[in-house]
Amino acid sequence: MEQQNNDGAVNPEVQPKPAAQAAPSAPGGTGLWLKIIAVLYALSLIAAFFVIDKADAARKARPKNLDLSDLTGLNQSKKDAVAIIPLYGVISQGSSSHSWERGSQQIAKRIKTLADKKEVKAIVLDINSPGGSVGSVQEIYSAIKRAKAETRKPFIARFGEVSASGGYYVASACDLIVAQPGTITGSIGVIFSVSNFDSLMKKVGMKNDTIKSGKFKDIGSPTRDMTPEERKLLQGLIDDSYEQFVTAVSDGRKMSVEAVKKLADGRIYSGHQAKENGLVDKLGDLQDAISQAGVMANLGPNPRILTDTDPFENIMSLMDSKLSLFGTKAVTDAMDMTPSLEYRWYGH
User: What is d(CA 300, CA 72) in angstroms, rounded to the nearest whole number?
Assistant: First the structure.
């Protein structure tokens, strides 16, 4: 506040104080840290020059005739791996073209895709299957044979709890078979099952009228008895498919047809029995099969593993299987009475 004196001059009531002087910087502040950083930087440069000098000296001292590619493992890419393809459950063609389904056409496609990959040096088929329809089993078998011929990469079959009939047919195309001692395998043969509801239909008063172009057009119909002529025709079909199975095992196991037929009367074997009879090469688990694949592919007994999985496909496969339980797919599959020719063991 200002006041006037008797002379009319204005005098301030309070005189302004002088501005405070800036505090001196703390000793050893920013300057000290800059010195520390500079010293560390200089030390890192010295260390870098030291490492470079050592590496250059080692390079000059190496014999010029030393071939590093001869050293085990140094000539292999870090990406080289053994691929694993699961084959679980009954083998069929599949009811749709969904890429995440495990029908025979999708399995065959995966075999070709993985075999064509440069980093894949061997493939392990992880089989846990009682077999399936003749056509679908042969589709996978042919895919393996074709991939082996085109890429020369080894295929190893690993048997889980069951690898019977069509499961064994597929494995016979592989270079090596590894099974658990208690694996159920064998069941080499063909089956064609036909249901007959003729007596039941008569009891409930139902009758089926069929109009057909030829006498064999409704062969295998569940609404009537099979004729002797039809039975003979189907037996010929069974015998032909059986010979194909025996030939595949004979070629794959390097056994004579006569030797295979002694084992191929439909009976099942344990993994231990199968090995004694020449149907299996080694006893072991999945890790043993992977180790064998690594050795055969010159990757060593502990190769990198490339699994045949895709997160998106796994999610879609799970959704498809769960949602089908609430739709018509499960009912349709259950009511499908169409007979089929199968390489399958029905004990599973």
Answer: 9
CA atoms of 123 and 192, how far apart (whole Å)? 32
Q: Which of 217, 256, 262, 321 is catalytic?
A: 217
Domains of the chain: 81-188+265-325+336-344 (3.90.226.10)
The 131-133 sheet, strands edge to edge = 131-133, 341-344, 191-192
Distance CA 56, CA 286 (A): 45
Q: Is-contact 156 124, C-beta < 8 A?
A: yes
Q: Among this protein's residues, is 165 annotated catalytic?
A: yes
Q: Are 235 and 192 in contact (CB under 8 A)?
A: no
Residues 266-320: pLDDT tens digits?
A: 999 999 999 999 999 999 999 999 999 999 999 999 999 987 655 555 555 455 4
Helix 228-253 × helix 134-151 angle, to 10° = 20
CA 278 – CA 94 distance, rounded (Å): 32
Which of 104, 136, 165, 250 is flagged as catalytic? Answer: 165
Given its phi and psi angles, is residue 240 left (phi above 0), alpha (psi -120 to 50 degrees) or beta?
alpha
Closest alpha carbon to 252 in 290, 279, 291, 285: 279
Q: Clarify whether 79 is annotated catalytic.
A: no
Q: How many CB atoms lie within 10 A of CB 169?
A: 26
- Crossing angle of helices 104-116 and 134-151, in 10° steps, is 10
What is the per-residue pLDDT across 148-163, written as a single tens digit (0 to 9) for each? 999 999 999 999 999 9
Q: What pTM did the predictor assign? A: 0.70
Q: Which two tokens stand for residue 260?
A: 């295979």
Strands of the chain, DSSP E: 2-4, 10-12, 81-88, 120-129, 131-133, 155-164, 176-179, 184-186, 191-192, 268-270, 282-283, 304-307, 341-344
